[in-house]
Every structure is written in C-alpha cells, then in structure tokens.
Amino acid sequence: MLTFRRLLRLAVVITVASACLCRAEEPAASLPDSPGQSQTNLNQPQPAATGAAIYGPPRQAPFANANILPNETPVPFSEGQKPLFALLQVADPENLPSALASAAWSHLINSSPHYGTNSTAFAQRFGASVANNASQTLLTAGLFSPIFHDDPRYFVMGRGHSIPRRAIYAATRVLFTRSNDGRQVINLPLICGYMGAAAMNNLYFPDKDRGVKNTFQNYPTSLVGAAVGFETHEFINDAMRLFHRHKK
Asked: What is the pTM of this model?
C-alpha cells in the first residue's frame, strides 16, 4: 500500500506539472480534458493534410489495430465485432512484454500477488499478470464497450500537439473515451471492466491477497496502470521513429 501511495503522489505531481506547462503554452479552452471540448480535437484523427504531412498518406486502419493514428480512418465496429476485436488483442504477442514487466516489478518489490520470491513465484506472477490483462481487455472491449456503445480503440492525438498536452490527453483516457458516433463520453467500459478484472483476481490470487479490501486496493493501482498504458500508446510511434532514426 505504501508503494501505491508513492506512485499516486508521483502521478499527481507529474500531472500538475504537465498541466502548468500546457497552460503556459495554450489557452485554457483548448485543454483536452474539458468534457465540453469538440469532437474534432479530442476523439478524431488530425485533418488529412496534417496527418499526411507527419504520419504519411491517409489510409484505413486494419481491423485489429488498437491504436488509430491521426492519418488513419478506423473501421466502424458493430457491437458484435467488438468481442472478436477483444479476442484478437488478448492473442496479440505484443502484450507479453507489458505482462512480463508487471510481473518483474511485482517480484522485485515482493508486492501483490504474494506468491513468494523464488523462480516458481515469478512464473506464477507472470501467469497472473497475463490473466489480469486478458480479463481487463475482454471485459472492457468485449463486454462493456458493446453495452455502452463505445469505441474500444485508442485514438492517438499525435505530433501535431505539444508533449504536455498529449500526456494529459493520454492519462485522461482512463476517464474519457470515444463513443461509436464520435462523441467524448465517460469511459464506463474501462471503469467497469477494470473493477470486474480486479474482482476476478480473487479466483487465482493467493489467500493473502483475496477479499473485498484487497480488491478495492488493487483497483486504483490497475487504473494507474491503464493510464501508463495509454501514455505508451500515445508515444510508442514516436519512440520507434527515433529508434530507427538513430539506428541508421
């Protein structure tokens, strides 16, 4: 619990600092967090000319893409297609590094789930991390997104905006998402899905980490993890671009 409080304080400090930088650079009315912000600024890709200039020619995003770049047009999802999309995300091997990193950190500080500190315990932590990620995805994208008629994909704000603004936008996707018709709405699929996944941890966590109290302690930690994941979605394309540039 002490570790989570430190992480939460750090997240608050970073968010406040970013907000101050963003306020200094842009008018308050253009902040991406405002519920009244226009659909174009928050939930849609950049105009074609801007997207083409930065990310390449306009194109249609593949069905399985979880990240939609500013130059991409998303494939419209029917409610029945969202569970298939969720299954494809669970089966994507690119999810394994994040599960491995989560298990490694948990093992390093010996935090929940408390399986121990030997190699067997690490394997159990890794399995639990994979199961938790899968349940979060299946519940959020496969169950609650169809129920609430929301789009389960992440729409990248992109390099046409300042880094602080993009960081705030990504972090607030825990609370806000895009509806099927492009409006910004409360991210009920994630809020409900992550709570359901936290409750499902009781099925395979050690006895020490089960129960209502532990579920509500793990829930905010998982939301912080979701915010970190959205930051990765926002900036991973830029990181890969810099990596290839330096590699040349």
From this structure: 0.76
